[in-house]
Amino acid sequence: MPLHYTMKSMENKSIEGRRHPWDVSTTEARYIQEQLRELWEGKDRLGKIRTVAGLDASFVVTGSQALSKRISRWEWLREANRAIACVVVYRFPEMVEVAREFAIVPLNFPYVPGLLSFREIPAMLAALKKLEKMPDLFFCDGQGYAHPRRLGLASHLGVLLDRPSIGCAKSILIGTHGRLAEKAGRWTELIDPRANGERIGAAVRTRAGVKPMFISQGNRISLESAIRLTLEVCDGFRMPRPTRDADHFASEIKRKLLRGELSEK
């Protein structure tokens, strides 16, 4: 398949060269993932980690945006499809919160399993742009390498920004795993039987007696380091603190938006 016009600049491996359009078809989106996958790094290239961030997204979605009558601005916001992205930043390893930002952008890409990054990342980039300094490591609420094309949300974002990232998913998209011990800190490999048993991530017991989290490499990190760092930022709950706080923050912003208590900017 020849290089699509939307991907011409990806022949340049700089951050500028990794940018791509977001207003694309699902076929183009899959091809973009395949091209970005060539830039993915699965070994540790972490540098000094002084700050880490959790990222998550929420959505305001309705069946139709066709409005037949005049409505107020806040009524319009309640009807319009929007993506809300939140980022919470901490000083590491102390895990003291140092910043949090959010962004609300139009939601144009349809819900398609395996292409969720095209719904969430535009809003995440807008939120990250508001930070004074880019964090050293991203914890993303979603898949990384454990993805059909090996480029889930965490990998997509990490490759775009050339930053280390970790996928912290609450459920399995693809793959299977064996028996997992109940003790917190234990883990077992997540493998893809359709790819000759390739290791694509891990089921990690972040809290004893509860369902595991599914951790996978985002970018510029080994699976072992991704698991270690995830456990380092856990604080007794199932979800790692960065993604849990970002999730709560996104829910709070969504509630305030729907109540008309804040601007979409």
In DSSP terms (H or I, runs of 4 or more residues), the helix count works out at 6
Shape-level CATH architecture: 2-Layer Sandwich
**SS-based class:** alpha+beta
Poorly predicted sequence stretches spanning 5 or more consecutive residues: 1-12, 64-68
The total strand number stands at 9
Q: How would a crystallographer describe the biggest sheet? A: 9 strands, mixed
Radius of gyration: 19 Å
Order the strands across the largest sheet as they lie in space: 3-2-1-4-5-9-8-7-6
Shape: globular
Helix content: 25-40%
- What is the succession of H and E elements? HEHEEHEHEEEEEHH
Number of domains: 1
Note the topology.
Layout: H1 26-37, E1 51-60, H2 73-79, E2 82-91, E3 96-106, H3 117-129, E4 137-140, H4 153-161, E5 165-169, E6 176-177, E7 187-192, E8 198-204, E9 213-219, H5 223-232, H6 241-259
Parallel strand pairs: 1-4, 4-5
Antiparallel strand pairs: 1-2, 2-3, 5-9, 6-7, 7-8, 8-9
